[in-house]
Design goal:
Layout (H helix, E strand, L loop, with lengths): L6 E6 H6 L9 H14 L6 E6 L10 E3 L2 E5 L4 H14 L3 E5 L3 H9 L3 E3 L1 H8 L1
Parallel strand pairs: 1-2, 1-5, 2-4, 5-6
Antiparallel strand pairs: 3-4
């Protein structure tokens, strides 16, 4: 039986990518790939980073685990998948943080026991 991670960071990929005015809307898949690459090398004080992607961004990163980053493709809406991922991590006993600027999503994350922070918190750590 695998040990549950002590800390999990759940990233709203669309929201974090959208916080940068770098032309991401012209290449959603490429923007998702760049975020994934940054998460792979960042020192984020989280054992596991869950990157949730939806829509066209899913084409940029395959679903699955790369080192400490697990990419999840949302089957429909990303918010539901983000809350589900947070709920599972909290239930496993992990200190769980959700990254999103969406206030309704932040409230839902808090409702399942996760801390919610905005994209600037993550972007500051990515450099």
């Amino acid at each position: 039986m695998a040990r549950a991670p002590a800390s999990v960071l759940v990233v709203d990929g669309a929201n974090v990518v959208g916080a940068r005015a770098d032309g991401w809307w012209r290449d959603r898949a490429g923007a998702a790939r760049r975020l994934h690459e940054e998460l792979l090398v960042a020192d984020l004080d989280a054992e596991v980073v869950v990157l949730v992607l939806e829509g066209g961004a899913k084409a940029g990163v395959r679903a699955g685990r790369d080192v400490h980053v697990r990419t999840v493709h949302a089957p429909r809406d990303g918010d539901r998948t983000i809350v589900d991922q947070a709920r599972e991590a909290v239930a496993a006993g992990a200190r769980t943080t959700v990254v999103s600027a969406d206030r309704a999503l932040q409230a839902r994350a808090a409702g399942v026991g996760a801390l919610a922070v905005g994209p600037s918190w993550l972007l500051d750590r990515l450099g």
